[in-house]
DNA sequence: CTACCTTTGAAGATT
DNA sequence: AATCTTCAAAGGTAG
């Protein structure tokens, strides 16, 4: 179990996180209290790209008090975790701040309360097409309608979420193989629950269940790109439901998804291309956050452009309290853990080059100055945005 | 049709 | 060891 050891610190985004908190600095606390939407909207409307705090306000070094505070707090949060990561990375997840909030390991048993709580979805109800949190909602994330984007507490969910099942239990070989096309060698290590747990995490883009964004998406059971294996037709899981991280590789990432499995009726002409599937990277904390919050932001801002949404999300991310962020870091840690278990031999490098990246050039251009700036061709826009920034953002 | 944009974080690659 | 690069999501946009 590589990297389990360092997961604790690592999860808190030690390096980058600390840096990123810098730009927010003192205002963070204030910002956190207030609603972002108005300002976000205003910002975005004045300029699509006015969030360039990063570019115009280079990230402050880690000496910043806020960063230090976060780090220290984070350490507190994970202090007991750190003690036993070697043994069991998630053993204590139902403790401390995670108590109750639990990460419903979506699996068999926990097809997530989120869904069940709604009353309309049963974990074993195969009539539900595909029950997965829409974008937005990561099954591992405490499914709280109020979310915790604005400082609201969300840490208390039905106690039933105790997720011992989500814990890695190396010994079980069980039936995983029947559910996931797992790489040889890794199968035997994965417990069914683990497999399920990770399942929803890897969304299935545009698989036909997508629904328009709406504010309700985040509260109701969102059906869309996250098919829960259990929800699929009985025949499917036995044929080896691909892990959501596995994307058939044929060029179009959106179309390819798992539609062959999920939408047998559609795309009749599409030939089955026996190309080896792509196992995608596990989502990091911020990605998980984005998935959960995107729909909400879109609903609030009536924006759909992801680039703009992501800017807002990026700012909100910084404004999150440490506890709130910690949840996502923890989720991300679990994701990585699960991913490792499911795909022992997988490496991020495997996907290198799958995107044709011209961005590389841009990064090289901009990398000379700041840490990260992908504006590239949008430089003009960025410059314009810079005019709004000083007062708007700060 | 497809890369890009935009965000943060993780991890691989490079220096 | 430090720095750089790539890729995760996502949906509008531009070429």
TrEMBL record:
Residues 279-347 form the HMG box domain. Pfam families: CTNNB1_binding, HMG_box. Residues 279-347 bind DNA. Its main location: nucleus. Gene3D superfamilies: High mobility group box domain, TCF3-CBD (Catenin binding domain). GO terms for cellular component: nucleus. Keywords: Activator, DNA-binding, Nucleus, Repressor, Transcription, Transcription regulation, Wnt signaling pathway. One of its GO terms (biological process) is Wnt signaling pathway. SMART domains: HMG. Residues 1-69, 349-378 are annotated as: Disordered. The keyword Disulfide bond does not apply. InterPro entries: Catenin-bd_sf, CTNNB1-bd_N, HMG_box_dom, HMG_box_dom_sf, TCF/LEF. One of its GO terms (molecular function) is DNA binding. Residues 19-43, 54-69 have a biased composition (Basic and acidic residues). It is found in: Nucleus. PANTHER family: TRANSCRIPTION FACTOR 7 (PTHR10373:SF33), TRANSCRIPTION FACTOR 7 FAMILY MEMBER (PTHR10373). Belongs to the TCF/LEF family. This is Transcription factor 7 isoform X3. The lineage of its organism: Eukaryota, Metazoa, Chordata, Craniata, Vertebrata.
């Amino acid at each position: 179990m590589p990297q389990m050891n360092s997961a604790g610190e690592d999860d808190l985004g030690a390096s980058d996180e600390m840096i990123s908190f810098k730009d927010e600095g003192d205002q963070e606390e204030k910002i956190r209290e207030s609603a972002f939407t108005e300002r976000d909207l205003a910002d975005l409307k004045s300029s699509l790209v006015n969030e360039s705090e990063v570019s115009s306000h280079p990230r402050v070094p880690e000496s910043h008090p806020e960063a230090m505070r976060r780090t220290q707090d984070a350490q507190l949060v994970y202090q007991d975790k750190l003690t036993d990561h070697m043994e069991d990375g998630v053993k204590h997840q139902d403790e401390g701040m995670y108590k109750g909030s639990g990460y419903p390991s979506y699996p068999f048993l926990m097809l997530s309360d989120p869904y069940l709580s709604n009353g309309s979805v049963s974990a074993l109800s195969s009539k539900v097409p595909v029950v997965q949190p829409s974008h937005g909602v990561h099954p591992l994330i405490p499914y709280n309608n109020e979310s915790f984007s604005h400082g609201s507490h969300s840490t208390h969910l039905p106690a039933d979420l105790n997720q011992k099942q989500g814990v890695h239990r190396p010994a079980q070989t069980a039936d995983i193989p029947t559910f996931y096309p797992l790489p040889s060698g890794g199968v035997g290590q994965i417990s069914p629950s683990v497999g399920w747990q990770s399942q929803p995490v890897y969304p299935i883009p545009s698989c036909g269940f997508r629904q328009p964004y709406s504010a309700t998406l985040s509260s109701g059971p969102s059906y869309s790109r996250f098919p829960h294996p259990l929800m699929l037709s009985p025949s499917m899981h036995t044929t080896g439901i691909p892990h959501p991280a596995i994307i058939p590789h044929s060029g179009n990432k959106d179309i390819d998804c798992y539609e062959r499995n999920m939408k047998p009726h559609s795309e009749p002409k599409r030939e089955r291309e026996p190309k080896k599937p792509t196992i995608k990277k596990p989502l990091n904390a911020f990605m998980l956050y984005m998935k959960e919050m995107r729909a909400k932001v879109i609903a609030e801002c009536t924006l759909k452009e992801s680039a703009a949404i992501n800017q807002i999300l990026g700012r909100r991310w910084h404004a999150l309290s440490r506890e709130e962020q910690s949840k996502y870091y923890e989720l991300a840690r679990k994701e990585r853990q699960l991913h490792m278990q499911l795909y022992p031999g997988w490496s991020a490098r495997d996907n290198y080059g799958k995107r044709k990246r011209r961005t590389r050039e841009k990064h090289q251009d901009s990398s000379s100055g700041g840490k990260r700036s992908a504006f590239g061709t949008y430089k003009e826009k960025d410059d314009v945005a810079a005019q709004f920034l000083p007062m708007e953002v700060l």
